[in-house]
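Hey, quick one: can you model this chain's 3D structure?
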Amino acid sequence: MSLIDQLIQGGYLKTPEIIFAFKKIKREDFIPDNLKYQAEGNYPLSIGYGQTISQPLTVAFMLEKLQPQVGDKILDIGSGSGWTTTLLAEIVGKEGKVFAIERVPELKDFGEQNTKKYNFVSSGRVVFLDGDGRLGLEAEAPFAAILVSAAAREVPPALIKQLKVGGRLVIPVGGYGSQEIQLITKKENNGVEIEQFPGFVFVPLV
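Sure thing. Here's the predicted structure for all 206 residues.
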């Protein structure tokens, strides 16, 4: 059974558009050459600079909580290998746009080159930026969704501010060894609704 079929059977992949993206956007295209043989492994893999390409189960879980839609403008923080960025770009379609922020310049370039394999950079559907993800991207706000792939000790206020009303932020929160994924939905008058899902491990958001 393929990894994707395992994720479907396990209930981690449910939404048809997300399943389609997982099947089309190959994880092996985002992994260093010496690790490509492990692309089907359901575990994180090193991409250098102390960063990883996340475990497929975790990415599936986070995208299902984020629920990206066709036409959405999305901010992807800690874009790393570019895999989640490219999955998001496939889901939002030609009418959507994904802004990817990565603090390590070499990884920003790595992720951008990987995403170019799917022609999303040349078409303008994806824009890669060097920067501090904790600050978000005020110039392009508001966003329909924000995905963070590294753990923050607390949720950066800028990210909530930059969500549109009804927008969703999926972010790992917590210190080393004690982390949870939070789904934060923005309400009217800057109110939020928070759902918490414990039991995950991420590299820190710095």
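One thing worth noting: The first helix runs from residue 3 to 9.
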